Amino acid sequence: MSLRTSLGRLLGRSSSPAPGAPPSSGSRGETIAYLQEFVRTRVGVEAYVEPPNAQTPTTVLLVATTGEWTRRRVPDERTGFEVARSLGVPVYNVRFTGYPQRMRDWTSAQRRKG
Prior knowledge:
The chain is an alpha+beta fold. It contains 5 helices and 4 strands; from the N terminus they run ααβββαβαα.
């Protein structure tokens, strides 16, 4: 079974869209490919599972050594941990660890750039 298929199962979706269905923006396959690409093309990526709150659902936050980060929705916290593990990166619960300083520094630098 491929990593893409495994991640698709973790995200609670079938491995392929309905016949004839056009791919949608932000589809499961695109999300999986994006997360894999982020991990593959950056150094020292770690994952942080963010619990749901009043404004946002549960998410997985990936943060590289440089502080560059990305965030994607997952169905629940357990799935978030499973997705991160399947990507082969360390995973933390943001409730207990907080956000890494390098992420805040990178975000501030991006805002200054305009």
